[in-house]
């Protein structure tokens, strides 16, 4: 099946909206229910991994389920999406993500418009975002290459793990990072800290395209 651009953009918009709504909403719920940061992070992690499996399964056949400008950028580098469509995807992702944050605030009776004051910066966190995004793009590319039907589960499990093995809790997504700057809750990030995170995420995606592009290429030489 093929879908026209408006439907693909709507899928990207809705997918990123629901992803961010889950990230922010589960963070608010976790912060409300416990003062233990480790428990709160776990309460934020599990819903995020779970919703990714659901969203990629139901929306992947429509748009490819990028929900992430870094992933779209990776496919642009691989010439699997046009520049015009890639820009449109990114706009839809960011717009959907911001609306997802506002919806989460509305569900918990918080001020809709907020600016985060949570400090997330420094070389270690930026490096963690390079690693997190590199791994995410690598999982997607290798998953598509070897077992496409497993990609929803692979991505959900990877992000669940990366929440805990990266210093940055694995944003790995510029649209999610931007959206989280609009919430002064558990999952927030100061707007001033966004450039470092976003740059690191695109760098990680580019490195993954280069390395996994080579790694997954079959040797067609005769032996």
TrEMBL record:
The subcellular location is: Endomembrane system
| Taxonomy, superkingdom | Bacteria
Q: Cite the InterPro entries for this sequence.
A: Aquaporin-like, Aquaporin_transptr, MIP, MIP_CS
* Keywords, ordered alphabetically: Membrane, Repeat, Transmembrane, Transmembrane helix, Transport
Q: Which residues span the membrane? A: 12-30, 50-77, 86-104, 124-144, 156-176, 196-216
Q: Which Pfam families match?
A: MIP
What's the main place this protein lives? membrane
Under SUPFAM superfamilies, the record lists: Aquaporin-like (SSF81338)
Membrane topology, record value: Multi-pass membrane protein
| Family the entry assigns | Belongs to the MIP/aquaporin (TC 1.A.8) family.
Q: What is this protein called?
A: MIP/aquaporin family protein
């Amino acid at each position: 099946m093929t879908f026209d651009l408006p439907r693909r953009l709507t899928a990207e918009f809705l997918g990123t909206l629901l992803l961010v709504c889950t990230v922010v909403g589960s963070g608010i719920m976790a912060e409300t229910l416990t003062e233990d940061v480790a428990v709160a992070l776990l309460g934020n992690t599990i819903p995020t991994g779970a919703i990714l499996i659901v969203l990629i399964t139901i929306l992947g056949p429509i748009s490819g389920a990028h929900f992430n400008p870094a992933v779209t950028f990776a496919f642009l580098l691989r010439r699997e999406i046009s520049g015009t469509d890639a820009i449109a995807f990114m706009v839809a992702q960011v717009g959907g993500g911001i609306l997802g944050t506002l919806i989460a605030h509305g569900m918990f009776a918080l001020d809709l418009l907020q600016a985060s004051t949570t400090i997330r910066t420094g070389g270690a966190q930026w490096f963690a975002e390079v690693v997190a995004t590199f791994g995410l793009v690598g999982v997607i590319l290798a998953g598509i290459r070897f077992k496409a039907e497993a990609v929803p589960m692979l991505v959900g499990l990877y992000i669940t793990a990366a929440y805990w093995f990266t210093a940055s809790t694995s944003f790995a997504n510029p649209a999610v990072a931007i959206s989280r700057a609009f919430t002064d809750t558990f999952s927030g990030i100061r707007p001033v800290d966004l450039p470092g995170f976003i740059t690191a995420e695109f760098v990680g995606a580019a490195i993954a395209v280069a390395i996994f592009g080579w790694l997954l290429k079959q040797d067609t030489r005769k032996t």
